[in-house]
Amino acid sequence: MYNKKEPVFLKNDIPEIWHGKRYYSLDAYFKNTLGHKLNKIAIDAGFTCPNRDGTLDARGCIFCSEGGSGDFAVPFSSIETDEPYIAYFQSYTGTYAPVSQLEQIFGQALADSKVAGISIATRPDCLPKEVLALFGRLKAAYPRKFIWIELGLQTIHEQTALYIRRGYALECFSRAIYELDSLHIPVIVHVILGLPGESESMMLETVEYLGRIPVFGIKLQLLHVLRGTDLAEDYEKGTFSALTMEEYLHILINCLDHLSPNIVVHRVTGDGPKDLLLAPLWSAEKKKVLNALHHRMKLQNSYQGKYWKGGISYASGTSDTL
Ligand code: SF4
């Protein structure tokens, strides 16, 4: 199933396997490995989160909406599609439940012939040994499907992590990355650009750090200020301002220039619910933002890894990603 192609370089170090984009997008990755694109359907499996249920905190991360960062997610049983897809367990913390319940939920998804693989959004402090052992069992039971883990790191900087109430230290994250890598479980890391108090160089440090550890994918997300969150209160008090589109494109392109080309880029904007979006409002026009990004990258001759100083393998994290 895994059909890794050797990179063929076009001019300006842009490999053919990126299929015309200036970064290694998830669509390109699927074209290279499966021969076709794959949609992701966000699922709400009814989990909660230790950062919301009072175990760590009752308030949640400062930017997190009532929907637990899964505002478009639907129950698995309501999905109707004839196309193969990725079952994305997005809402709240996707491993925060008894192992027997997780086994039933993930097993049911993997057993579905239309599910090509599952992607589970969780926290690095919610991956105990029993959960890791479950992933091992599921991988053995479904060798032709993939299991991905998505971790919301947002930043490597501890002072920002404290402000956003992330609730775990960077060391916890890096330990989880290596434990998952030892099981050949690819990890997608969520990073937020534009967090209050972060300079551009701090954001570059975060993406450069991810190039040095075994990370399969990245979601580069613009900070969205959503109504009803504590972040919205700070925004309305004027303690920080949201990025303009100009600022965001500048930072995003710089981050892509510094990002290891081995990492698959799963997202370069954000998908906040429009009815909750307080700022920045320009981000609701996603197509316009993407067009501007691609246009500007071409004008500047920017491309993922332009300033990357490490090795290039295009191995996508682990050799058995799919
Ligand atoms: S860990 Fe995720 S679900 Fe939990 S509060 Fe933070 S963003 Fe929300």
From TrEMBL:
Required co-factors: [4Fe-4S] cluster
Signal peptide start and end residues: none
Gene3D superfamilies per the UniProt record, alphabetical: tm_1862 like domain
Presence of keyword S-adenosyl-L-methionine: yes
Top-level taxon of origin: Bacteria
InterPro entries recorded: ELP3 (IPR039661), Elp3/MiaA/NifB-like_rSAM (IPR006638), Radical_SAM_C (IPR032432), rSAM (IPR007197), rSAM_horseshoe (IPR023404), rSAM_sf (IPR058240), YhcC-like (IPR005911)
Pfam family, any one: Radical_SAM_C
Keywords: 4Fe-4S, Iron, Iron-sulfur, Metal-binding, S-adenosyl-L-methionine
Elp3/MiaA/NifB-like radical SAM core domain span: 39-254
Protein name: TIGR01212 family radical SAM protein
Source organism of this protein record: Kineothrix sedimenti
Lineage, highest ranks first: Bacteria, Bacillati, Bacillota, Clostridia, Lachnospirales
